[in-house]
Each structure stands twice: as structure tokens, then as C-alpha cells.
Design the sequence.
């Protein structure tokens, strides 16, 4: 027989996890304030944001979803452009690595 308190505890944990995911989403998708300087993201930060692999970020870059900027021999992406790309990703057919 299943303990009803275990079921309640499992559901509460699931809700807490979803609240954490929503909080993370809201924190990472804030629109930049006009006076706030533009920030850059690393390839890993982009992958973490979209929950994709690094090879997929390369594929999306080649597909034109993200515009790379070379800074001191490192690839960076403008945060505002990465967030704006979220609207277009579902409309474009892109390759996945």
C-alpha cells in the first residue's frame, strides 16, 4: 500500500523543482534596461540557457540563429540577440548535433 504522505511529499518536491525552473527562466530572460550595458555570453552559457549541447550551438550558429562575435580569440554572443533568437528557433528548421 502506498503511503499518502509519500505521494504528497513527491508532488511537493515536483512543484518546488518547477518553481525553481520558472525562477531560473525569469532571471535569465530579463530584458536589458536601456541604460544597462550590453553583455556577452559564452557558448556554454548559451547551451545551458537553451538546455542544448555545445555541438548544437555550433549547428545553430551555422544556421544563422546566433551571430558570433570574436573577442580575444574567443567566441561570444550578445545576450539580447540570444534571447531574441528564442522567438525564431521554433520557426526555423535547424540541425541538431
Sequence:
Amino acid at each position: 500500500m502506498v503511503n499518502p504522505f509519500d505521494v504528497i511529499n513527491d508532488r511537493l518536491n515536483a512543484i518546488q523543482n518547477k518553481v525553481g525552473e520558472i525562477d531560473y527562466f525569469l532571471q535569465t530572460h530579463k530584458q536589458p534596461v536601456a541604460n544597462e550595458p550590453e553583455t556577452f555570453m559564452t557558448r556554454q552559457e548559451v547551451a545551458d540557457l537553451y538546455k542544448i549541447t555545445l555541438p548544437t550551438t555550433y549547428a545553430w550558429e551555422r544556421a544563422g540563429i546566433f551571430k558570433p562575435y570574436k573577442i580575444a580569440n574567443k567566441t561570444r554572443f550578445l545576450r539580447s540577440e540570444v534571447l531574441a533568437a528564442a522567438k525564431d528557433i521554433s520557426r526555423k528548421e535547424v540541425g541538431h548535433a
Notes: Residues 48 and 54 are 9 Å apart (CA to CA). The first helix runs from residue 4 to 28. Residues 1-30 form one domain. The chain has four helices and three strands.
